[in-house]
Design brief:
The complex is a heterodimer of chains A (80) and B (174). With 80 residues, chain A is mainly alpha-helical. Chain A has helices at 8-29, 37-67. In chain A, helix 1 packs antiparallel against helix 2. Chain A is elongated, with a radius of gyration of 17 Å. The chains are: A mainly alpha (80), B mainly alpha (174). At the A-B interface, helix 1 and helix 2 of A face helix 1, helix 2, helix 3, helix 4 and helix 5 of B.
Chain lengths: 80, 174
């Protein structure tokens, strides 16, 4: 999804799915851990993922205002 | 088959099937709502793994926050030159398929090479992890807690600045 899709928002959705897959593994393996270190790790990952989503969407809105498209193949210039 | 196991597999299907459907669908808004269903399935699986606080946090942060942000992002970027921002096109599908299959193979081999039957699968406690998580956050994880709070503050201010500057410029130009 992150590699093949050409829409910036769908790439972001793919990143969220990947982060959730990693979180699910950490939670599942911390089930037998008395100190639930995996769960604490996942808690911080969720917060960082929320921050990442906010910044990424702000960048997407900015790119859209500049290029009038969010197709990743057409965004190929740093300056106009 | 135990009823617990049937429930587990149905929630796992609730998490996996929408994730596959996101890959197949060609509409961005469908992808956002399918992500919502998938994240709900993941929250249910958190409950099965004994992480009740994380399940609630997942629902509140992802479904209450990230999905709403994504839908706002989709709505703000819907009109384009060629007028097809709401449909998704794919490229490099063979390359993507190759990479995903190779990662899948690595994961399957690493799981098969470990012997998970040795692990004690008996659930040790059915108590809520909430108080333990809270005590951990205030003692052992106090520094990461403060650092991540600072990080999200900076990230949100930055996001508002980056998105708001452009919007202010647009409204001044009109």
């Amino acid at each position: 999804m992150v590699i093949t899709k050409r829409n910036a928002v769908v790439v972001l959705i793919g990143i969220e799915l990947i982060l959730n897959a990693a979180n699910l593994n950490l939670v599942a393996f911390s089930r037998n851990d008395e100190a639930i270190r995996g769960q604490m790790f996942v808690l911080f990952i969720i917060v960082v993922a929320a921050a990442e989503a906010a910044v990424a969407l702000a960048i997407i809105v900015n790119v859209y205002n500049h290029y009038k498209t969010i197709n990743l193949d057409q965004i190929d210039q740093l300056k106009d | 088959m135990k009823p617990e196991l049937i429930l587990f597999y149905s929630f796992a299907a609730l998490a996996v099937i929408p994730a596959v459907a996101i890959l197949i669908t060609s509409k961005v808004i469908y992808a956002a709502y399918l992500l919502l269903v998938s994240l709900l399935g993941v929250a249910a699986l958190y409950v099965f793994a004994g992480a009740d606080f994380l399940a609630v946090a997942q629902i509140m942060i992802y479904i209450g926050g990230v999905i709403v942000l994504l839908i706002f992002g989709i709505m703000l970027t819907s009109k384009t030159k060629e007028n097809n921002a709401l449909t998704v096109t794919s490229k490099n599908t063979t390359l993507g398929l190759l990479i995903s299959l190779s990662v899948f193979t690595i994961l399957v081999f690493s799981f098969l090479s470990n012997n998970f039957s040795e692990v004690n699968t008996e659930t040790t406690n059915h108590k809520s992890t909430l108080s333990f998580v809270g005590k951990n956050l205030m003692t052992d994880y106090a520094f990461p807690f403060e650092a991540v709070g600072l990080l999200i503050l900076i990230a949100l201010i930055g996001a508002v600045y980056v998105a708001g500057r452009q919007l202010a410029k647009d409204s001044n130009g009109k």
